[in-house]
Amino acid sequence: MAGLFDVPSCDKCRNPAIHHQVYSGRMMCGAHLAESVRKKASKALREQLFLPKGEHTTILVAISGGKDSAVLLERLHENLGKRRDVTLVGGCVDEGIEGYRPPSLECARQLCEDLGIRFETVSYPELGFKEMDDVVNKIVQLEEKKAPCSYCGVFRRQGINHLADRVNADVIALGHNLDDMAQTIMMNMQNGDLERTLRLAPHTSTPLEGMVPRIVPLRWIPEQEIHLYALHKKLPIHHEECPHGEGALRFRHRETIAMMESDVPGTRHGLLRMADDLKRLHASAGGKFNTISPINCPECGQMCSGKICKACEMKKQMQ
Ligand code: SF4
Ligand SMILES: [Zn+2]
Ligand SMILES: [Zn+2]
Hints:
Strand order of the largest sheet: 5-4-3-6-7
Oligomer: single chain
Order of helices and strands: EEHEHEHEHHHEHHEHHHEEH
Bound molecules: iron/sulfur cluster, zinc ion
Helix content: 40-55%
Distance between the termini: 69 Å
Strand content: 5-15%
């Protein structure tokens, strides 16, 4: 008989539930939540990753020491780790953030060690950028309006490209979850930036010129479920947030999306489905982008659409 203090039980096995999946109405225990995460990640991976027969594929998995990329690496290892035609490499960019990056870098290294995966890292100074702590000081000094994350995002992308180059990667795997995707799509809509949504990963059927294709196998899984999964699997993860992230627009988008989701469960899925439909529509209409064709940045050689790339422009500004 159900008593007043009974914990709700899992729909599938009657064990105590640890999660209410509001958008599906399901109650889930740890084991069944884990099963759901595994299934979604495997399905997305099947849809996004094509392994050409008779060829070797190297996948650079961008890891940060945080929960999302830890789950990403653990899943890829489980799905592909035994294949002889696939090599996984964990790559972590060191932004130079005291108190935050060193311990999270250790978590990333630990996870690779636990799984027996090669680990690579590159720091901002190695790439010719200032450490983020110095960038933040410079921003204050210049009374710059841009948030630290605007710089960091651009520099980190260079870092990931650099690591992909170093290991000769054919594919880059990123740990974006459903909330991240929904936030990005919202931000792009707010900026009227359709092109950025059309360029969103996965690039399986929409490759971008001059760029290693990205896959995002966790994109249908909500952040909270990834967090619970990481705890359930006892993955080594760093829980702290970056001290420079505060005030970033993304954090307000996080709140907005969470509010919309609680008002209308399924909002995040809806936004992502809409973005997929837009990509399909665009591809079926010939799939051209508005921008002028990309050139190689004269400073660093990376593909860019301006005179020099964003990273080199920001690097100059921060000198
Ligand atoms: S929160 Fe911003 S500054 Fe900190 S690591 Fe992320 S992008 Fe960089
Ligand atoms: Zn269960
Ligand atoms: Zn450049």
